[in-house]
Amino acid sequence: MSQQISPIVNHPPVRVIAITGCDGSGKSTLAASLVSHLAAQGSTELVYLGQSSGRIGEWISRLPIIGAPFGRYLLSKSDRVHDRPAAPPGNLTSLVIYLLSCWRAYKFRRMLAKSQQGHLLITDRYPQAEVAGFRFDGPQLAKAVGGNFWLRMLRKREQKLYQWMASYPPLLLIRLDIDEQTAHLRKPDHKLSALREKITVIPHLTFNGAKILDLDGREPASKILDESLRAIRTSLS
Question: Which CATH code of 3.20.20.70, 3.20.20.100, 3.40.50.300, 3.40.50.2000 fits the domain covering 14-51+102-236?
Fold first, then answer.
C-alpha cells in the first residue's frame, strides 16, 4: 500500500494547466495540442515535470567510455528501487533519488517564475505530496522504511521539496483515466504491474485541493481536446 503524507497549506492557484494520468492515457498528446491551440491567445509553453530519470539515463548512456555502463548501472538501481520500494536504498542510490527530486524542484521554480510573468504553462505531470513514489509524482525516499542517518536526512529534505511544490496548486488539473489493458496496449514496454499501480492510485489524488477535470483517455483525442479547452477558458475567465 502506498504511504500517505500529511496535507499542507495552499498558495493561490498558479497560471498552470497540469495534465496527469497513467502512462498511455494521452498526456503528451493532449499537452502538445493544448499548447498549439492556446498559443494564439497569448504566451503558452509546455513544461515536463516528471523526474526525468529515463531522459537523464539516456543522456548519460551517450557519454564516451563510461556512459553506457554507468547508464545501465543507474537503470538497474532504478528498477530495484521500484521493485523493492520499502527496502532502504544505499547511500549512492539515495543521493541519486534526492538529486532527481532537486532537478524536478528546479524545473518547478522555473515554471513558477514564468507563471508569475503572465505566461500560461501547460505541464505534463505535476508533483504531489499525498502519496509517496516517483510513479505518482511524489517523494520517492518516503517509500523506504528505516535507513541510516544519511537516508533519513535526505528523506526529510526531499519531503519538504514536495510539500513546497504541492503548496502551489495549478489553475486546473486535467486527469486522464484509462484501463490497464488499453494503457499496456499503448505502452507495451511498460510493466503491467506498474501501470496497474498508477491506475489504482492516481484517481484518488487531490493535488492539495486543486480544481480537477476528469476525462476518459480512451475517448477520441479531438473530444478530449474540446472538453479541455472549454474547462480552461472557464478557469481563465
Answer: 3.40.50.300
